[in-house]
Amino acid sequence: MNRPPPADPVRRRFLRGLLTGTLALGTLGGATVAQAYRFGVTRHTRPLPGLKNPVRVVFLTDLHYGLYIAAGSVREWVKATNALHPDLILLGGDQLDSRMDAPPGPLLRELQRLQAPLGVYGVWGNHDYGSFGLYGGRQYGPARPDWPAKREELRQAFAAHGVTILRNQGVAVRGDLHVGGIDDLWHGQPSVKAALQGAGSRATLLVSHNPDILPELPPGIGLTLSGHTHGGQVRFPLIGAPVVPSEYGQRYAMGWVQGAHAAPAYVSRGLGVSGIPMRNLCQPEITLLDLTPAGDGLPSTSSP
Length: 304
Fold this sequence. Notes:
Helix content is 23%, strand content 22%. By secondary structure, it is α/β, with parallel strands linked by helices. The chain has a single domain, classed as Purple Acid Phosphatase, chain A, domain 2.
């Protein structure tokens, strides 16, 4: 299920769309900047096939620590997450967004404060790969040939601070729940099969940074969680987001969507920003999922 990186015009169109939206919002001054740093909690109750007992999951994605996001923002996100008393915390990729010549101590110290009895797990995203040095950029500097060693160094640093990165791996976090995480769709080598190996009859949660994997998923996945799109980051009344960084346009921009075999998936608007330090009508979110056994009779609900 390897996917080559998208052609440069895809990213250029996304950034141009953000820039166009920013210019259109110029009269609002600092309002769009302020919106980028005011986050909320979206709350959802959903049944999950195979689950024997309820589980509370918090999903955090697209932190983008480095270019526009500092430890103070992460501290507030961690504080809000712990206040929700989750059983399990999942990170959806793009934790990093600047060159990492050394592990990011301030970020890791904040993430170490996350509290969840079933653990904290995450995946890598495309901006993480830029931070490793796979490709160059203004916040990354030149590409570095030793980027795989840097990826491993950072994986170990995250693990030492309580965050297990799953790259085509899965883990039974409870007798009735399997969590799988896949590599980044653009720059990694994602394998859903490897991530779900050993799941058996357990309920399954799959974490994929990029939602464009959804049409390729095999049957039987209980719920997939993704980020990457930021909901378009800059949205307008009636028309929504001018550009979404997805091969499928608006289809997987944000919220509840369906993958192959009508499998449910949730695409978070994320917490950080990319390209420009602004958002409009697209609030950063912490996603709270109260997952219940499929036969308990509770309806699926969502609320901001």
